Amino acid sequence: MEQYYPDQVDGGRTHYGQVAGILSLCSSIPRLPGDPGHAQTFEFPVLHAVVERVTIEHLLNIDESCLEPIIATARQLQEKGVHFITTSCGLYAPFQRLIADSLDIPFLSSGLQMVPLLKGFLPSHLKLGLITGHSGLLSNEHLRASGFKLEDVQVKGMEDYPEFRRVVLEGAQNMDVKKLRRDVSNAAASLKNCSAKLGLVVLECPNLVPFRLEIQQVLRVPVFDIVSLAAFFASGFRRAAFAQQYI
Predict the structure, then answer these.
(1) What's the predicted TM-score (pTM) here?
(2) Fewest Cβ atoms closer than 10 Å to its Cβ: which of 13, 81, 125, 242?
């Protein structure tokens, strides 16, 4: 393929080529490929930035005092030349509009944003499943900015699964991958046994994305998440020439 270069390249930065910026909380739990906190998750270059002084509790409580450091960090990523910004936690969703309006590039807060769009593709007799880190902590306040309510989806939380709870909810510094894979498979099986027939699943918690395949195998439905959304958005920036196959 012929290499494309523009006629002129503007400077002003120390490095170039990052497609997406990833906002991360100050957490040191292990992360596998598939998790947006792991750089090898993406097929395009990304740049991570830690939002200092913001914790998961700020996001759970929808505490607007955390907006200033989040927006400041997002602007730093913007200044470094990324084309869009996303996150490594689904609970940024309530702040979608406030953060997006503070930037000059798109902001993708959460996989929750996909729910109304994907739900619209389903036949009326099929339900959209939502797997979250803790169902007891997910409220309609977290979903309102994404355009849906708890009763619109079939929710399954991971709070009762021991390895997930130990690593993700309690912050352990090591992970038994086999146990966590089993936890996720069991949660998917529990969702399969609910009364509603599922048409697809969205993962709120990005730490579940490395186990997307396990969920697909159990439920036999498509599974979407923040990594799916970022890949979709990045495709809009990819330069692709279409060959003329026929005359």
Answers:
(1) 0.93
(2) 242
